[in-house]
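Troubleshooting log. The previous structure file for this entry was overwritten by mistake, so regenerating from the original sequence record. Sequence copied from the archived sheet and checked twice against the printout by T.R.
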Amino acid sequence: MEEKDRNEILQETPEQPEPAEPETMQEQPEFEPVAGEEKTPPHVVVEIKNLVKRYGSKAAVNNISFQVKRGEILGFLGPNGAGKSTTMNILTGYISSTSGSVKVCGYDILDDPDEVKKRIGYLPENPPLYMDMTVTEYLEFVYDLKKVKINRQDHLKDILALVGLTQVKGRLIKNLSKGYKQRVGLAQALIGNPEVLILDEPTVGLDPKQIIEIRNVIKRLGLNRTVILSTHILQEVSAICDHVVIINNGRIAAMDSTENLERGTGRSGKFTLRIAGDEYQVKNALSGLQGVKFIDVLGVREAGTVDVYIESVPEVDIRKALFDTLAQKNLPIYMMKPFEMTLEDVFLKATSGDMPVPEEKEPVAEKTAKGSEK
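Regenerated output below.
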């Protein structure tokens, strides 16, 4: 072949792109829903009523009740030994309860265990992976194990794309990074399109970049599924969960939306203020104000001002009286905001017994677990 012909062929051959490095994950912004990804209208999907689990005289779970709706991500928190894992094992059908009821999509875990399990995808803290299989082989194995009726090729393709495994689908699982192994575990939980996802420590051991990516995946999954997330990383709950249940010693210690839990102290009359003036003037002006329970000077953060923490007596709104009093004393307010606890503060307060325990109904007629004794 002549040199000219060879050069023409080389010029006409398109340059092949370098294969992407699968272990290097691309930077992703915080998840925001796009068009067509709106939340599904909520209705109750998981309902736990008066749940009790006893081991002899020890109550690992002691009369807890809560609900989780479709399109909701629930953070399920508690210190070690609080009953969190026991509750999740009952919910997934791994163990039976002593009394109470657990319903998923209207099916009772004791009466219709198979129907419940069809509707649950579970990612344990240590994903049940077969290291000598490729990603595709493993997901096909789980597909057969679950007896899924959805079109195999399309279903697995969609899941691989959703959790970002398409580029590594032909690789052995043992050769993947920790982050990708966690994605494989999440993918197996999604096989069969379960309506409920239960995730136990899904980001444990991941680096910050991998954590953000997994959080974004969970947020997207929560748009049209019910997600129950168990984790010890409280910042993770603040970042992705809509509601929080904190249990301690087998009982619910706190239960509310994430926002309400973090702002709960603001609603109870605790504020931080920055006031123009010196410490003596400010304390003297506020000392006789009716409804004030506690005052603490936090120090000087800005020249000519002093920062103060004020707590009112319960059910008394002191804001107007506070403003009027300081205005009369010619002490302008530069800043006033509710004193908000972090979720870490809420968790510590709830598990130390300093928060009022949510009211729980008296146990209804006990429903004995099949094959167990009351």
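The chain is about 30% helix and 25% strand. Archived copy saved in two places this time.
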